[in-house]
Amino acid sequence: EDQVTQSPEALRLQEGESSSLNCSYTVSGLRGLFWYRQDPGKGPEFLFTLYSAGEEKEKERLKATLTKKESFLHITAPKPEDSATYLCAVQPPSSSNTGKLIFGQGTTLQVKP
Amino acid sequence: DAGVTQSPTHLIKTRGQHVTLRCSPISGHKSVSWYQQVLGQGPQFIFQYYEKEERGRGNFPDRFSARQFPNYSSELNVNALLLGDSALYLCASSGSLNQPQHFGDGTRLSIL
Q1: Neighboring chain B residues of A102 at a CB cutoff of 8 Å
Q2: Which regions of chain B are under pLDDT 50?
Q3: CATH number of domain containing A23
Q4: B33 min Cα distance to partner chain A (Å)
Q5: pLDDT digits (tens, 9 = 90+) for B57-66
Q6: Matching CATH number, B5-111, of 2.60.40.10, 3.40.1050.10, 1.10.10.60, 3.40.50.300
Q7: What pLDDT, in 10s, does the model give residues A27-85?
């Protein structure tokens, strides 16, 4: 069964303290891996798409990387406004005609000033 | 440009009732997907429609149904509501099946 697991479930950082969030998946033949940010009471906001192992994408203080079995979201010198839940989702081969995404449970990040 | 819009934002129903949730995709997007998000969990796939045809269905009972209209807007219908249907219902749109999906802020459904 296709599964996505994110760790840790929750992460508390001091402002400026860099860290990484992990997303591991059991899907074979990944069609795409997506990172989203979700603020309380809001829908997920698209951040990145990664398609192949070795690929990297950056946006401000965030960098996403992809290997054959996992993805990392690196947060460099975070600020309090980076506090949110970060969701990872994969598009398995079986969804080639559906676009179905399988989400992890998310990592809730809190950055304290 | 307007993002994905969903209505209503909040809804309170009682067990056994029926509910209709609505979604307008980003202009130019032909694909609409529906997800259910229970508190503390990631979204779960319910349906996807592309060019007004159902392209995918998740592991949800037949009480859940959807459709897409000629203007690409969509409705999600849930019959015979159960307490366990309480959740945030998210709609997402994309230009095609393999492009990133962009989400609306959802409809918060509470079942009493």
Answers
A1: 45
A2: none
A3: 2.60.40.10
A4: 8
A5: 999 999 999 9
A6: 2.60.40.10
A7: 777 889 999 999 999 999 999 999 999 999 999 999 999 998 999 999 999 999 999 99
B interface with A, Cβ–Cβ below 8 Å = 4, 31, 33, 35, 40-45, 48, 50, 55-56, 58, 90, 92, 94, 97-98, 100-106
Q: Which two structure tokens, joined as six digits, stand for A77?
A: 């010198």
Task: Identify the domain containing residue A101 by its residue range.
Answer: 4-112
Tokens 């019959």 -> residue: B79
Which of A32-58 are b and which e, b meaning 16 or more Cβ less than 10 Å from the residue's Cβ? bbbbbbbeeeebbbbbbbbeeeeeeee
Number of structural domains (chain A) is 1
Contact A110, A83 (CB under 8 A): yes
Q: Which of A49, A99, A104 sits opposite B42 (nearest CB)?
A: A104
CB A44 within 8 A of CB B99: no
